[in-house]
Amino acid sequence: DLRTPLTSIIGSSSTYLSQEEYMSPEEKRKLVRNIEEDAQWLLNMVENLLSVTRIQDEKGIASVVKADESLEEVRRFRKRFPDVQVRVSIPDSVIIIPMDATLIEQVINNLLENALFHSGTNEPIELVAATEKSGLSVSIKDFGKGIAPDLLDTIFDGGGTSENHTGDGHKGMGIGLSICKTIINAHGGEIHAGNHLRGAQFTFTLPDWREY
Fold first, then answer.
1. Is the dihedral of CA 96, 155, 56, 190 positive or negative?
2. pLDDT, tens digit, for every residue of 7-66?
3. What is the pLDDT of residues 113-152, one digit of tens each?
4. Which helix (H) or strand (E) holds 36?
5. CB 204 within 8 A of CB 180
6. How far apart are CA 186 and CA 196, in angstroms?
7. C-alpha span between 183 and 191 (Å, rounded)
8. Is residue 190 a contact partner of residue 206, using CB atoms and an 8 Å limit?
9. What is the DSSP secondary-structure string of 112-145?
């Protein structure tokens, strides 16, 4: 997962340096855009790997999930991908759940990017947070081609989705989804992948262990 974008960055930059005088402005912009996209993807993967170092044996830190669509990772996602629509539905009241907010934000970012790069559609992504008696449930749903049935049982095991078919060069979410599972399990929660009638859906739960 890490080697592929690095190879692409090296190849694009080498092409630019060796062919600059023969390239049109449009070709130059395309190469630079490819370098930027791969660098951003690498940055997210580094953040994923750093997230693992934050996981400790303790339950977590009490944090607040805000109720005005200001979930930090949704804002960061929209800044990186301004043309992608994310429909957010969260309760009107403030939700207080024991969590490491930075790690949960990373999970949300990973799942949003997974929906963007692997759904094969430009339709809006839905993010729904809901309170349950035992804690918090968050679902991210796309309206694309769904997940191949033979991948459902192993999608969080690190192998990911091999590669997408959108033609953008992004590889599978092996690292990202595996780290999502690690983070959620460290919180005592659960994460599941499945298909609905019109695409894929990922749902994770966080328990409110203060109730026990």
1. positive
2. 888 999 999 999 989 999 999 999 998 898 888 878 877 877 777 666 644 444 444 343
3. 889 888 888 899 999 988 877 788 999 999 999 999 988 8
4. helix 25-54
5. yes
6. 27
7. 10
8. no
9. HHHHHHHS---SPEEEEEEEETTEEEEEEE--SS
Can you spell out the DSSP letters for 68-84? Answer: SS--HHHHHHHHH-TTS
CA distances to 54, 56, 101, 156 from 187, rounded to whole Å, are 12, 10, 11, 16
d(CA 187, CA 6): 32
Using alpha carbons only, give the angle 118, 202, 180 rounded to the nearest 5 degrees: 90
pTM: 0.69
Tell me how far CA of residue 18 lies from CA of 15, 22, 206, in angstroms: 5, 9, 52
| Amino acid, single-letter form, for residue 71 | L
Q: Exposed, middle or buried, 62 (CB in 10 Å: 0-12/13-18/19+)?
A: exposed
Q: Are 141 and 200 in contact (CB under 8 A)?
A: yes
DSSP string, 55-67: --SS---EEEE-S
Eight-state DSSP code of residue 173: -
In whole angstroms, what separates CA 26 from the centre of its chain? Answer: 30
Tokens representing residue 21 in the block = 């005088």
CB atoms within 10 A of CB 40: 14
Cα 203 from Cα 176, distance rounded (Å): 15
Strand, coil or helix: what is 187? coil
